[in-house]
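Appendix B, record 7
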Amino acid sequence: MSNKLPIIIDTDPGIDDAAAISIALNHPELDVKMITTVNGNVGIDKTTANALKLKQFFNSDVPVYQGAAHPLLTDIVDASVVHGESGMNGYDFPAIDQSAISDVHAVEAMKTLLLQSDTPITLVPIGPLTNIALLLSTYPEVKQHIRQIVLMGGSAGRGNITPLAEFNIFCDPEAAQIVFNSNLPITMVGLDVARSSTLSHATVNQLNQLNQTGKMLHQLFRHYRGDDFEKGTNVYDAYTILYLLHPDKFETAQANVQIEVSGQLTKGATVTDFKSPQPNCTVVLSIDPEIFKNLFIDSLQHCI
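Structure tokens (predicted):
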């Protein structure tokens, strides 16, 4: 019986996604069962190509499944201004074999894997929640096979794409509302924790000396135009993986989180009520910046 934590990563790579996937694919305590892709930072064809580039970079045999090309109801939003035209500008990945993409839809692949698994699996969505909402509403029977959902998204404070909304939730607020009200154990790793521990430019430069993965991430981060760019780099998605590995190092609080779906100025806001008698979510609030830096660098030591 393996004591590795089985996970599914649902992703829209994305430069910070690349950091999260690098750690997850190589860490001895994690067992990535599959990677599913979703429209988000860039369009679905590009996010899927980027997942395959990372799979090939690490010579991984983890299967990649393409998921939703469009949010449930809202219009597509794009973040290529932050991540570059390809979604992972800055590093010259070799060409990929497009035939490596399965013709099974990500939602079907997740359903099959979950229903066949003897052990409950942790879902780690680090993009918009479209695939996860489709999975839970189409196949509610999978819920008993899901250990927890640890997602990157939301904010207990200010947003990053609008004053109140974080990008992943804003991209598909209706999907987020389905997921947050699924009665599954949910952990929201949002903007708060990343803003509490931005990686300095000096730390990002250190990556270049680490290993091949460090060099690759260093080149990507130099092209990453995220929040607080003047101060450093917020590798949002990596926090989800590091939280899975070291939950005791993070400050959290219980809250009831609901998603604003109809507000003209507040669409996509994660309305976080820490006083609610009915919390539906663990909200990750902060981590000591020095501890985060060390966890991040240490986790990358497992990579090539």
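Remarks on this record: The chain has one domain: 5-302. The first strand starts at residue 5 and ends at 11.
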